[in-house]
Structures are given as structure tokens and as C-alpha cells.
Description:
Helix 4 links the parallel strand 3 and strand 4. Helix 5 packs across helix 6. The protein folds into 2 domains: 213 residues, Decaprenyl diphosphate synthase-like (Undecaprenyl pyrophosphate synthetase), CATH 3.40.1180.10; 27 residues. It is 47% helix and 14% strand. It is built from 9 helices and 6 strands; from the N terminus they run E-H-H-E-H-E-H-E-H-H-E-E-H-H-H.
Amino acid sequence: MSTSTPGSLPGHIAIVMDGNGRWAKKRFLPRLAGHKRGVSTLKRLIQTCLDRQIGVLSVFAFSSENWSRPEQEVSGIFDLLVLSLQGELPDLIANGIRLHFVGDRRGLSETVQSVLADAECGSAGNTRMILNVCLNYGGRWDIAQAAEGLAQRGEAITEAALDKALALAHVPDPDLLIRTGGELRVSNFLLWQMAYSELYFTDALWPEFDEAELDKALAFFAGRERRFGKTPEQVAGSAAAHVSASTPAASARKAA
């Protein structure tokens, strides 16, 4: 479930990076120029999340529905992905980031698959932050592939079993979902995992999403009361117990 504690930052942030094309159109630029600017935005945001000590960042880079876009745009996106990974991977590794590429790789070219595998292998020992790049991913696909895998192994399809078979089973569920671009939907992203995520929508287009915009989302999250089915009174009691257990006197009792 959640990795956050009362009053803390989210342990896991998920982002639908929407608005690259509209950003480019407003400036009479080709859509691919918006995607290039979006990569620069992601690079800055990763550093900001490191500075804020966010443990997990999951970004929706290319959905299973995005194949319906113009062929030139799709090929340009994957060319940009390969070039960006080859250029940025040394810095990502040096910064302690572990990369996971989440989604159905069967539809990707051998070149793309090889680059993804090399990036995952090269960063496998890092522990400072996990970066999940969701690529050819859909929430419905994720649930279906998990159920299919359980069925093929002859295992019972239970809630707990499905949870462990999902593509993001290696990280806790997102505490906070951010969607840029002004749309008010989740667009088939992490449908299972977002059961208790706080949802933050902003009109800022993805290339415009900077450190100040992230801090607005974090302030929104800090103001939320996360109950997970409990009453407000129970949450308040748990928070009081957490504070009490963290006092120097409590620590001294444990040490004794």
C-alpha cells in the first residue's frame, strides 16, 4: 500500500505526462519538438524528485493506445527514446537511479528492446530512486497479463496473487498521481495500483511542468487526509500514536 506517513512526502509519484503536442502547436512547431522538450522536462523533474527524496517515480511515456497516432510521430518518439537513453544513462546511473521499463515489449523493435534491457542491467545495483518508465503499457493489459500468468501456472486468481503478478509488483502503489495538460482522466494508467492514490490534475502542459508545479502537487498531497477505509478519528489516533512513538522518551524506553 502507501509508503508515506502522516504529513510526509509521497513515497511513490506517478505522472501522466500530457500536453507535449499542444505545447508545440501553440508555438507553431512540429509535435516532435514538444516531445523533445518533454524529455528535458522529465530530466529536470527526476533531479527535483531526487532532491525531495522521492523513492519511486513512475511516468507514462507511451500507452498501448498511442500506436494509433501518425506513424511519423510514433517512430520519432521511439528514436527520441533511444537517443535520450543512450545520452542520459551514465548520469542516471551515477545519480543512483534504477530503471525499470514497464509494459508489453513484444510490440517493440529489437533495437528498442536491446536498449531497454541494457539500461535496466546497467542500473540494476542502484537504490537511491526507482524510475519506472511505462512504455507500450495499459492498465487493462497489466491486469489481463497478470491473470493470464496465474492461470497458466495453475494458481488461484486472488486479489493478493494478482497484486504480486502485476508489472509494478516491485514497488509500492503510487501515493500521488499527477496528470498534466488539463484533462481529468487517468487514461488506462495503473488502474489497479491507483485504488488509493491521491489524484492531482493541473492545466500546466507537460513541457511547462517545473519544480514550482511539482511543489504545488506536493502541497496538495500534504493537505490530504489518507484514511484507507478508516474513520477520521481512527486516523487521528494512529497519527498521535506515531508521534508518541517517535519522541525521545519513547526511543529511550525502547533502548532500555
